């Protein structure tokens, strides 16, 4: 886990930078009848080296920009991750790289740094140099005294692209200069330092927002009320009552997000925005009103066949939208942000009688897959739904869910492992954020669901899969205790009973890491689906 010395950003992200940078976003949506193939490799991803400090230092020297400022801007925008932006709000260009450069700024920065726009998007060094070159140009135009760190505040504000004065001031004072004052450190997975910023005590020379009492949100007392004019009345009748929560990522930072959504010219909104650390939530639209956060009509085929009576109606009519500071392409989400969002979702679900599962608390990208991917493949769905139910008192604390996307699992008690050739799938009805499938054949190459028990316990095991006509009618789930003893085999028909938990059996497990394996060893001609496992 990353180490942070920044209370403002500390809860911000338990950031662990991998050696290869962000994982590529899946783009394939297989048909219900899967055809086994080798997993594809996305070669268009962004390049992020293990050591970022030298890159910041070199760019700072080349363009006469304080290295501390470069690092603070990058951290406040992306938590020192190479992001590959997507559109979230119409009219706002996607952000790229460690500096989250967008649109005309990206193009101008690349030209000033003498690199291609593509390099500025995908290469860490080029992206930092483009950001430094742009900051330097802005400083020259503003006659900034370059040795005065506080004087760079107006340049920071200009680079952010934020127009709302309060949001702009928050980005400068609590964002970039908050990081400068508190410092931050991010580690690679092997414990080596990826990037570091020593605390620098400095005051931003920039106007603060007008001193005023911050009103609480009308529906969520823990929120700050930043009312947006971008809403209208929900339609009357059952189709207008809130029955789902949609999870979004801002594709940018928190201040820029709510600052954009309160702009009358933006034409979009969300009901809530959660900041990166989970320390602050803004409410922008009342839950009883219709926010403008998803540009799609509802299709239950995209959502496990749930609530089909709503088909053809605007998803805005019956949903409440929660935006989150961050990006769909980031490799992980801060624990504090997930926790704060789960508390908020519990409150919304309880007050509006919304079912607390992954079909009623759902990804933006699931309901609008043609143009949106947020919150991305690494949103920890199992953990998130479990936390929501925990806060609402509807799930036993002893329940363990093992999802096929490891990012969704609590690594202390659940993990997923594949042997051999399996392919990622995303047909409607999956649990969490996708699943894997593989052809049946006489090969020992199972999918393994591991779970940890501190003591010997008798537990019931359930499995979740996506049903289809080419699935195995005799998929074998084999349970083992921590010593490797075979406890029994459950055979299920994966052509039916998809999109729900199906009991496999009750077994006497031992203390330690137990496992359930989905076997492929049977006659060729079908596929088996490894999606999720529940231990209760």
Summarize the structure.
The chain is of the alpha+beta class. The protein is 24% helix and 21% strand.
Describe this structure in words.
With 536 residues, this protein is α+β, with helices and mostly antiparallel strands. The chain has three domains: 7-197, Lysozyme (Orthogonal Bundle); 224-391, Peptidoglycan recognition protein-like (Lysozyme-like, 3-Layer(aba) Sandwich); 400-535, Jelly Rolls (Sandwich), CATH 2.60.120. 24% of the residues lie in helices and 21% in strands. The chain contains twelve helices and 25 strands. The strands form seven sheets. Strands 6-10-9-12-8-13 form a six-stranded mixed beta sheet, sandwiched between helices. Strands 15-18-23-20-21 form a five-stranded antiparallel beta sheet, with no helix packed on it. Helix 4 packs across helix 6 and helix 8 (165-182) packs antiparallel against helix 9 (254-261). Mean pLDDT is 88; it is low at 1-45.
């Amino acid at each position: 886990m990353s180490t942070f010395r920044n209370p403002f950003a500390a809860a911000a992200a338990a950031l662990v930078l991998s050696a290869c940078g962000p994982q590529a976003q899946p783009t394939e949506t297989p048909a219900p009848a899967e055809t086994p193939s080798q997993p594809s490799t996305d070669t268009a991803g962004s390049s992020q080296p293990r050591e970022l400090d030298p890159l910041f230092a070199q760019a700072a020297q080349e363009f006469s920009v304080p290295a501390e400022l470069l690092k603070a801007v990058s951290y406040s925008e992306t938590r020192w991750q190479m992001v590959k932006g997507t559109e979230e709000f119409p009219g706002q260009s996607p952000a790229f790289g460690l500096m989250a450069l967008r649109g005309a700024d990206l193009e101008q920065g690349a030209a000033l740094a003498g690199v291609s726009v593509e390099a500025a998007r995908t290469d860490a060094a080029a992206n930092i140099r483009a950001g430094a070159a742009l900051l330097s140009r802005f400083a020259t135009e503003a006659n900034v005294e370059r040795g005065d760190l506080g004087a760079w505040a107006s340049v920071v504000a200009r680079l952010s692209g934020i127009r709302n004065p309060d949001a702009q001031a928050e980005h400068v004072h609590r964002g970039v200069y908050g990081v400068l004052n508190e410092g931050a450190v991010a580690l690679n997975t092997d414990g080596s330092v990826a990037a570091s910023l020593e605390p620098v005590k400095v005051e931003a020379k920039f106007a603060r927002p007008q001193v005023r009492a911050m009103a609480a949100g009308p529906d969520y007392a823990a929120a700050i009320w930043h009312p947006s004019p971008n809403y209208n009345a929900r339609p009357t009748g059952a189709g207008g009552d809130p029955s789902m929560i949609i999870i979004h990522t801002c594709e940018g930072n928190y201040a820029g997000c709510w600052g954009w959504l309160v702009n009358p010219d933006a034409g979009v909104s969300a009901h809530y925005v959660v900041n990166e650390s989970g320390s602050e939530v803004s409410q922008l639209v009342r839950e009883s009103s219709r926010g403008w956060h998803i540009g799609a009509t509802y299709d239950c085929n995209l959502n496990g066949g749930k609530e089909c009576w709503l088909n053809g109606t605007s998803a805005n009519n019956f949903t409440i939208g929660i935006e989150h500071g961050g990006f769909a392409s980031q490799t992980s989400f801060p624990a504090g942000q997930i926790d704060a969002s789960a508390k908020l979702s519990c409150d919304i679900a309880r007050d509006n009688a919304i079912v607390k599962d992954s079909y009623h608390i759902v990804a933006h990208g699931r309901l609008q897959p043609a143009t949106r991917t947020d919150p991305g493949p690494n949103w920890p769905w199992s953990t998130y739904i479990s936390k929501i139910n925990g806060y609402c008192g509807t799930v036993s604390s002893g329940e363990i869910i093992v999802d096929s996307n490891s990012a969704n699992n609590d690594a202390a008690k659940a993990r997923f492992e594949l042997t051999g050739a399996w392919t990622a799938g995303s047909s409607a009805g999956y649990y969490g954020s996708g699943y894997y499938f593989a052809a049946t054949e006489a090969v020992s190459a199972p999918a393994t669901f591991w779970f940890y028990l501190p003591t010997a316990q008798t537990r019931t095991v359930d499995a979740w899969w996506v049903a289809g006509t080419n699935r195995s009618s005799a998929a074998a789930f084999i349970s083992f205790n921590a010593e490797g003893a075979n406890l029994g085999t459950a055979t299920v028909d994966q052509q039916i009973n998809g999109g729900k938990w199906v009991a496999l059996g009750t077994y006497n497990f031992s203390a330690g890491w137990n496992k359930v394996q989905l076997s492929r060893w049977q006659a060729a001609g079908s596929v088996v689906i490894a999606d999720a496992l529940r231990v209760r």
